[in-house]
Each structure stands twice: as structure tokens, then as C-alpha cells.
């Protein structure tokens, strides 16, 4: 179950501050390592915030790549790929491994783990450029990702909890015709992939937050259902869970991509950094 899984124990953070500190620590440690071993030029090094800008830029590219894949990827493969990408850059600097290579490998690895059979030659047919080189990159980066993830490959998704909530709602009389919110809630869960939600909240919380957002857009409220669902919890637990669900429902969807000119400058510095390492 989720509460005893490596997903929960190792890859679900308690708050956004923990996420920021973790990324800052990765940045500081890698820069220290570079200076001790390579004597690299400081002007090419990226700050933690700049690293996160690059990671977000390629997260959007990951989303676009998944959506245009042939054959069409199941949603569980897409979500698993995003989890692997997020987890990887919680422990690794972009100055060490470029997100462009990591994101495609995460998708290929996710397809294997989720048992969506996709031969490598068919997978790389979706990529531009030298496909033989792409095959070599994916095969070499696959073991790197596995090692940095400590082979924690199990990912719990919000789809089953959401289905369970809709089944439960049909037995109650708190929301009229709840099925009308199903597609919208699933669309919200999909858009949340581009945010920090999946690294900060449990799958069931994401499902409820997406349902709450879908219901609120019709000028209705999910509060009566939450009162029933959380009735067995203590007052403090109920307040904490409700707070998390409302936080998810209020996350800004469709985040703006980093400005093109900013990415160009950061990419140039990143490439110069990598050139000095070789």
C-alpha cells in the first residue's frame, strides 16, 4: 500500500520548503565537487533557481513529447515518466546530467515498468535527429536513472482513488450526478503533472483536490462529501487533510514556460559547463 511504499517514504516531501532545500543542497554539493576536482570557471555554474528553471523548461517538453508519442501512451506510463523525472532531479544536478537526455529515457523506462511494450527502435522513431545515437543515450542513461532512484520504481497514481471516490459518491446524496465531473477532474490531474503537486501530495489527495476543483468550477462545493469522507478522523487530522486538498484545488494550472531568452542563456552556460568537464 502507498503508506508503506518507497513512493511515500522516499519520494513524497512534506512541504514546498523541503523541496527547495533538497534542490539547493543538490546544487551546493555538485558545485563543491566540481570546484574540488575540475577547477571549473564560476561564470558557467548554475544556481539552484537556474537549475529549476531548466528542469521546468524540460518538464514542459516531456509533457509535449508524451502527448505526441506514437503509439499513444497510456496515462499511467505518462505519470510514471513524470515521477521518474522529478525524482531524478531531486538528487542530481542538471550540470551533471542534461534533462534532454533524461526525459526521453524516463519515458522509455516508464513504458517498460508499466508493461507497455514498446521496442526501442519504435520508441526512437519519435525522436528527431540521429536515432542510433538516441538508442545509445537511452541505454546508457537508463542504468544511471535506476541507480539514482535507488531502484525505487513503484509509482502510485491518483486514478484508482478518483474512481473509488466516484463510486462512493453514487451511494450518497451530497453531489447530484457526480459522473459529470469525472472527465474534468482527470484533465486537472493531467495538468498537475506540470506543477510540483505529485512530489508534495499523496495520490488520494491529488484525486480529491482535482475533484474539488472540478466541482467548484460548476459553482458547487465538495465540502459535504469531505465531511462524510473524513468523519472518522480527529479534528486536527481532518483540518490538515482538508487544507492539503484545498491547496491542490488552488494550484495554478498551465504554468507559464520560462522566457525563451532566459533558457537560451542558461543553455549556453550549461553547455559551456559541460564542455569544461570533458
UniProtKB/TrEMBL annotation:
InterPro entries: Cyclin-like_dom (IPR013763), Cyclin-like_sf (IPR036915), Cyclin/Ssn8 (IPR043198), Cyclin_C_2 (IPR031658), Cyclin_N (IPR006671). One of its GO terms (biological process) is regulation of transcription by RNA polymerase II. Keywords: Cyclin. GO terms for molecular function: cyclin-dependent protein serine/threonine kinase regulator activity. Residues 60-147, 160-250 form the Cyclin-like domain. It comes from the Eukaryota. Belongs to the cyclin family. Cyclin C subfamily. This is Cyclin-like domain-containing protein.
Amino acid at each position: 500500500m502507498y503508506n508503506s511504499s518507497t513512493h511515500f517514504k522516499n519520494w513524497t516531501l512534506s512541504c514546498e520548503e523541503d523541496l527547495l532545500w533538497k534542490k539547493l543542497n543538490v546544487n551546493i554539493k555538485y558545485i563543491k565537487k566540481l570546484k574540488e576536482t575540475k577547477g571549473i570557471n564560476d561564470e558557467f555554474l548554475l544556481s539552484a533557481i537556474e537549475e529549476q528553471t531548466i528542469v521546468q523548461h524540460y518538464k514542459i517538453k516531456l509533457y509535449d513529447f508524451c502527448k505526441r508519442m506514437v503509439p499513444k501512451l497510456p496515462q499511467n506510463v505518462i505519470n510514471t515518466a513524470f515521477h521518474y523525472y522529478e525524482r531524478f532531479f531531486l538528487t542530481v544536478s542538471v550540470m551533471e546530467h542534461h534533462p534532454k537526455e533524461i526525459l526521453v529515457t524516463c519515458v522509455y523506462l516508464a513504458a517498460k515498468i508499466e508493461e507497455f511494450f514498446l521496442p526501442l527502435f519504435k520508441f526512437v522513431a519519435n525522436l528527431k535527429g540521429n536515432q542510433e545515437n538516441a538508442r545509445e543515450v537511452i541505454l546508457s542513461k537508463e542504468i544511471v536513472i535506476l541507480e539514482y532512484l535507488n531502484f525505487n520504481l513503484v509509482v502510485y497514481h491518483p486514478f484508482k482513488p478518483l474512481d473509488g471516490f466516484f463510486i462512493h459518491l453514487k451511494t450518497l446524496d451530497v453531489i447530484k450526478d457526480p459522473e459529470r465531473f469525472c472527465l474534468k477532474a482527470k484533465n486537472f490531474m493531467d495538468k498537475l503533472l506540470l506543477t510540483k503537486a505529485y512530489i508534495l501530495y499523496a495520490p488520494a489527495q491529488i484525486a480529491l483536490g482535482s475533484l474539488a476543483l472540478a466541482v467548484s468550477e460548476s459553482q458547487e462545493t465538495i465540502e459535504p462529501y469531505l465531511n462524510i469522507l473524513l468523519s472518522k478522523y480527529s479534528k486536527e487530522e481532518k483540518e490538515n487533510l482538508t487544507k492539503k486538498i484545498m491547496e491542490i484545488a488552488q494550484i495554478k494550472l498551465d504554468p507559464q514556460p520560462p522566457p525563451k531568452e532566459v533558457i537560451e542563456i542558461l543553455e549556453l552556460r550549461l553547455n559551456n559547463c559541460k564542455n569544461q568537464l570533458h
